[in-house]
Each structure stands twice: as structure tokens, then as C-alpha cells.
Specification:
Layout lengths: L1 E5 L2 E5 L7 H8 L18 E4 L2 E4 L12 E3 L10 H8 L9 H14 L5 H7 L11 H14 L2
Helix pairs in contact: 2-5
Length: about 150
Amino acid sequence: MTRFRVNGRPVETDDDPCTRLIDFLREGLGMTGTKEGCGKGECGACTVLMDGKIADSCLVMLGQCEGASVTTIEAFADGRHPIQRAMADLGAVQCGFCTPGLVLATSALLSDNPAPTPAEVRRALEGNLCRCTGYVKVEAAVLEAAKEMSG
């Protein structure tokens, strides 16, 4: 039995502890917001937060989640979070495939560093590949969200 929390909700599962977290989220819980891109932890599409830190859910096994708190993009489902608003308002989303990972990576960054420099934003997001936006608008959106979140 593996016990952990997903978006604040307790989860218990008898699934194989070697099941990938992304598969459990998508198939076991029906949470399809987390995307699988490369399956190798290189693209960031499957980004979740584990105890507030970025994790590639394609590389995390259920057994590693014991006692952890996992946050997925569904935690931002209301669409009113400053990160989501800034990304939408500044055109930092296009096809949307990478957006969940970028939102979660931004959340982790701003949790640790509420006033990042542009270089710190680029460094924090370097594990997230986006083929549509070119990152300029993404960086601007992160900086705008940081301003809004810090008051």
C-alpha cells in the first residue's frame, strides 16, 4: 500500500510500487493534465511538484511517493491563479502541451524566489521544452506573475 497526497487529497493505492507516477495520475486517478512528452525526464511536460520541488512524473515510481505531497496542474484548475492569468494574458501559451509543466515549474520557482531576475527565470525553466512560444513571452509571464503574487 502506498499512501500520499495529491493536490491535498489523501490517496491510497495497492498498485505496483514500480508504476510510474504519470501513469497512476492519468490512468488511476483520471488526471490527464500532466502530459507525457519524452518519457525520459528531459522535456518537462510531465512536471509535478513533490513536497514543493519539481519532479518528472515519468521518472518517479509510486513507491517513491510514500508520505509525499504531490501537486499536479489540476490544483490550478480554476484558472484564476496569477501564473495562469499572466501566461494567458501575455500570450505565453500556444498549443498548451508544455503549459502544465511550465506553470508548475514557475510555481516552484516563485515559492523559493518570489522576485527572480530574468536569468533566474530562464535557469528555472530550462528543463521545460516548448516548441511554440520561443520562451520570451513565457519569461515575461513569469516575471509578471511574480509581481502580482508579491503584491
